């Protein structure tokens, strides 16, 4: 906000003085008047509304007295001390004190003379009160402050956005890793279960005999016929033996000198109850 300066003369009724103050002034002072005191502890009190206050005095030159010394307080809180700086000649309308910024409300300002001799004379000329003007646009200072606040907010938003940009990929990556681990362990568990089931089935299935040793050796035809005849006598059924290669050959084209026995002859002998002849071997004539 813009600020206004309001001048309050030393003779304004708003200023309250303690005893030991006197009136003086020339055309060089504001409104041709000043208030003078050389008593330590004398005060001037002013109630004002604004954000700051300044004190202006007249400073005598060398030989016209010693520098002025005073202390200041706002709302019963000390705000500083001040000592004037003398020059070779009398100085008018000199800023003696400027308060720090205060809240924009009503305040009580107290000036106390701290001179400790009759030569420490204080020449009070006027006060300047700094007030806010709510009817004017904001000053460049206020605009700078607003810009700084906007920049701060923008920086904060930017920092938040940067953090989100970093966190989102990290969280997505963690989620993918968790899903992959879950799939891996599930697959591993299913594989182990399948292996256990296969092992159980393997234990339950009897071992198949795959190795068969074929019969080796010569067939003794007469002994076979004798065995069959005995089984027939005992009442067991037996399938007539098929003709051997020797019999087939003898039935078709018997070789010279070979005595053969046909299957039909063996069957006839079995049917009439006679025991078949006993042969031990084939006789070659």
From TrEMBL:
Region Disordered, annotated ranges: 137-157, 236-285
Membrane-spanning residues: 163-185
Domain of life, per lineage: Eukaryota
Keywords: Membrane, Transmembrane, Transmembrane helix
The keyword Membrane is assigned to this record: yes
Protein name: Uncharacterized protein
Organism: Gymnopilus dilepis
